[in-house]
Amino acid sequence: MSSIETKQSLEKKIAECGFWNHLGIKLIKIEEGYVEASLELKEEYTQHHGVAHGGLLTTLADSVAGYAGVSVTDSEKNVLTVELKMSFLRTARGKILYGKGRVIKSGKLLHFCEAEVFCERELVAKASATLAIL
Length: 134
What we know:
Blueprint: H1 3-15, H2 18-23, E1 26-31, E2 34-40, H3 54-70, E3 79-88, E4 96-106, E5 110-119, E6 122-133
Antiparallel strand pairs: 1-2, 2-4, 3-6, 4-5, 5-6
């Protein structure tokens, strides 16, 4: 599949993702094995200290890692996160979250991916994900 077909296929899958759209995640960049997205940090996405909820950071990391995996997977197949390790490095306080996901190793049955989450320009979390190819 060409890079244009990959991008169009991935954009279509993202457009159909209810949770992604519910949260207002915006796609920034798609390349083979790499996805960037942003998310406005709304008040309802914070916890009682006024910082981004860890579940939100995890969702963004899982999403960009997962779609990076999708970008290197045959369009007739799907991927599913089977393992996700999240490390929170500092609190996320600001207006915009950015997620960057990349495939580290692509395989026939599994992909190994990583993601970074930034608040404004500061790295706030890192994740590693194992994706099963279905």
